Amino acid sequence: MEKSSKKISKFIEQYMLEVVIVVMIVFMSFLSPHFLKVNNIMNILRNISLQGIVAFGMTLTIVCGELDLSVPSSVATAGVLTALIGGKLESAGIMPLQYGAIVGILVSCVFAAVVGLINGICITKFRIPAMIATIAMNYIIYGFSAFISKGYPVTTLPSWLSVIGSGKIFGVIPVPVIFLLIVFAITFYLLKYTKYGRACLAVGGNAESARLSGINVVKTKIITMIIVQVCCVLSGVLLSGQVMSGTFSFAKGWEMTAISSVVIGGSSIAGGTGNVKGTFLGIIFLGIILNGMTLMNVNDYLQYVVRGVLMIGAVMLNAMMANKNRG
Amino acid sequence: MSILETKNVSKQYPGTLALDNVTVSFESGKVHAFIGKNGSGKSTLVNVFSGSTAATSGKVFLDGKELQFRSPSEAQACGLATVYQELSLVPNISVAENIFLGRLPMKNGHVDWKKTYAEAENLLKEIGIDIPVKEQISRLSIWQCQMIEIAKAMSLNPKVLMLDEPTSSLAQHEVEALFRIIRKLKEKDVIIIYITHKLQELWQIADTCTVLRDGKLIGIRNIHELDRRELLKMMFGEVTVKSMPEDLKCSPNVVLKVDHLSDGRRFQNVSFELHEGEVLGIAGMLGSGRTELLSCIFGSRKSTEGSVELKGKIYEKRSPEIMNKAGMAMIQEDRKRLGINLSGSIAQNLCYAALNRIGKGINIDRKIEKKMIEKQVSDLQIKVADTSYPISALSGGNQQKVAVGNWLNIDPEVMIFDEPSKGIDVNAKQQIFQIIWDQSRKGVSSILVSTELEELLETCHRILIMQNGKITKEVDPKQMTVEDLYAVCMGEE
Fold first, then answer.
1. Number of domains in chain B
2. What is the domain range of residue B213?
3. Domain holding B127: CATH number?
4. Neighboring chain A residues of B352 at a CB cutoff of 8 Å
5. Does the model's ipTM exceed the 0.90 cut?
6. What is the per-residue pLDDT across B200-218, written as a single tens digit (0 to 9) for each?
7. Using CB atoms and an 8 Å cut-off, which of residues 212-271 of chain A contact chain B?
């Protein structure tokens, strides 16, 4: 009897998030008749996709023991650049909008890579704490993006972008979900099956011992800061497709959602442990909660309170589990 | 006049008796030196006095009053102050503030700065320290900080002042200045307890000498009635040093050549050669520059001059990454902080150094990885049920084996061991030596640094003596006793 209860408690500890999510789904389906409808489920999935893509990138930075708080502006800027460049190329008569947007996306990628590189260099070479370096970078990009778009939404986007932003496969599955799954698979693979992923874990766990083992800490961190920025471009392009505009003020607070998902998913904020699958569950968890609160007409502002509480709770739980396992 | 006494003090740690029935007394106005090799119990005795450990049995008296305290702050309140080797000053505030930290003079609910500075100045003048009280600690040199530490301890008006290896990081003229201060303190009727491993200092500064060995009090003697030979005998007793296995030969081929290497700070102009299959020991006390030398060779520390030549190739620019590729391994002294990743699994920790050798391209070849892990676990006899367990679950000895296995996976040509037996049990120690010898038989050369001189005599083909940042001598372990080696390390014949 005692043995089986131990087994159950171990099972719950190991699959706590899964259990919580299932409980929440059951709970919600009783509270709201709309919750389990295909439409609503797809709605949840579409809502979590864009921020989820950023969260996977964020998982890598957190595994490395760093953070990227510049993601909101990077997401927004990808849309602004894509729309602006596409529009300019069209109005200059160089190429039609549907191709111009592709050039815009490519430029956004280069821009993001440079931002990631600068973030990485600030963190590694100049030893500026990631929190400070990337929060400053967030301001820089925000201002830059507002400046080049003169503070207005830019709407010169091709119609195909709307398809990948808000289209549905077989009329059911939102296209961004496919991108979410692809990014999930890539991140999972990177962390588990590549030398880079192993280096991330080593660097996040103990940067000095990693360096003394001959691992290139600087390179590993810089690559990570670039990857998260490229995730932002993908997310930003999908976002601009969804609303058919590139706006510098989009994506406010996404860094918070991304970090919450990672921590709720069980990765340690101190670095060195990474759980990509956990991040996925964390995103779903947050998606259900937000959807549930909306369905139950919880005040918008109170939703922020709930999100903040959840994040603190997750970090606390994480630390408690770590302590328990150590002791 | 005050007296500090112990009666039958013992301290039992799991597996070892660190202090064995020690009864001894110290009187004020004298400098009492504690002497003994590593693990002799001298630090444990000081820890009992300073309140950081409690004795298992026995009593401590100060002026006939039994002392019972559970923490260093309680010991301090009873009049026993300690100045530790690691400095504990706050760098960004003034000398005066540091001295009175936590008990600054107050007036009307705010700090009375005038009084603070005046009192600090008086205190420094009294002891004979010439440092402005408003100076920031971060602008002082290490020996000046050491003086401030002593002043801080003295500001508590202690009856007992304990100095834990105060000269280990000081230059000769700085030591002189420190001794002047200590002599002055003697006039203040304080019991001064002085821990050192620098024998030559004893005759300059100490009055009595308390020798401990294996937790037992060997004797307390007037230093001026004692000569070096006798002291060494008291310290080491009769030791039988095992010699290295007969079959270990090294070839005349030079694998590593270090030429006039300097780091501009801790060591200068170091040259030596390492032969194929050789186990080369470097003996030197704490602060001799040995770890810095090894770090420079390995590239984790910058050198200012000189070169390192490995297998005929000169490496101008070195980093752990470059030297790893070149086939050099280094097992770090501070295992938990530098050697392993405590949040990683055993398997992961075995494959960090060889990360770029696990398959081609960006992917990890699982087959190669598995082979590497299994090989080290069985070769090194790492006791573990499952290598996916966190490394923190292992004992110190097994963690050290993982740290060594991590490097063996790169098939190194040269392995540097910095204090490999630190903090591991006797059995694991022997296994580590066995690994070093096994590598030697394969033609792998090793450099071994250890403060345990017996270990060097047992394991090495050749021993270099390092002192104050210089290689001063080369000795043959076969023609040396531990006492001889200790004396040579101290710069004596």
1. 2
2. 3-236
3. 3.40.50.300
4. 198, 202, 209-210, 213-215
5. no
6. 788 889 999 999 988 899 9
7. 212-216, 268, 271
